[in-house]
């Protein structure tokens, strides 16, 4: 829904990708359905099933009213990074793209890991840039503005743009999330710039 252009670019470069999802999305009681939908979506994007890890922790339950502890998230990230020798983490930024508290908590946990855990010394953290709402739904038309505001240091500021074929693939992956495909998400698939453009900023 948000990271498609980045994931598909990395797949095209034969990069090994791991997905660490901090919740099964059980706010509406559909957690097991959404767990399986996420796995199906990731497999369409080319992520190996053994590299998909979906957490179901009692203190990390889906929902905008549930506060997630950044230290707990940091500990989970630390365990996963250490076990799988991860060298780059990509997550939401402090605005969470949609301002969802769980997205923001994911960033806060990753930031805590990078800043506080000694095993993070060789790990790089990138965050997905949140753009103003007027730019969020103009798809590829946002590209000139994206480059206008781009940091000149190309390592601190990365831009990934999907080809048409990759857009179609990301769209197919989104349709795996049948339990979430209400009418406005069909519009999201068509018009969201995050289906076509990802802008990442280096945190550390």
Automatic annotation (TrEMBL):
Pfam families in alphabetical order: PIG-L (PF02585)
Protein name: N-acetylglucosaminylphosphatidylinositol deacetylase
PANTHER family: N-ACETYLGLUCOSAMINYL-PHOSPHATIDYLINOSITOL DE-N-ACETYLASE, N-ACETYLGLUCOSAMINYL-PHOSPHATIDYLINOSITOL DE-N-ACETYLASE-RELATED
InterPro entries in alphabetical order: GlcNAc_PI_deacetylase-related, LmbE-like_dom_sf
Record-linked SUPFAM superfamilies: LmbE-like (SSF102588)
A GO biological-process term: GPI anchor biosynthetic process
GO cellular component, one term: endoplasmic reticulum
Species in which this protein is naturally found: Rhizophagus clarus
Gene3D superfamilies named among the record's database cross-references: LmbE-like
Any GO MF annotation of the entry: N-acetylglucosaminylphosphatidylinositol deacetylase activity
Listed EC numbers: 3.5.1.89
Class of enzymatic activity (EC top level): hydrolase
Family designation: Belongs to the PIGL family.
């Amino acid at each position: 829904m948000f990271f498609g252009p980045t994931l598909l670019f990395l797949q095209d470069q034969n990069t090994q990708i791991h997905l660490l999802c901090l919740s099964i999305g059980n706010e509406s009681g559909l957690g097991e359905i959404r767990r399986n939908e996420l796995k199906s979506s990731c497999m369409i994007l080319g992520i190996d099933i053994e590299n998909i890890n979906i957490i179901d922790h009692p203190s990390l339950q889906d929902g905008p009213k549930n506060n997630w502890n950044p230290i707990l998230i940091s500990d989970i990230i630390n365990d996963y990074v250490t076990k799988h020798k991860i060298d780059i983490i990509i997550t939401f930024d402090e605005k969470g793209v949609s301002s969802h508290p769980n997205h923001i908590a994911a960033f806060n946990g990753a930031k805590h890991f990078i800043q506080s855990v000694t095993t993070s010394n060789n790990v790089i953290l990138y965050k997905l840039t949140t753009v103003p709402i007027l730019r969020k739904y103009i798809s590829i038309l946002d590209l000139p503005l994206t480059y206008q505001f781009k940091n000149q240091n190309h390592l601190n500021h990365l831009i990934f743009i999907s080809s048409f074929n990759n857009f179609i693939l990301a769209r197919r992956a989104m349709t795996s999330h049948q339990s979430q495909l209400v009418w406005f998400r069909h519009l999201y698939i068509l018009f969201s710039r995050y289906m076509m453009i990802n802008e990442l900023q280096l945190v550390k």
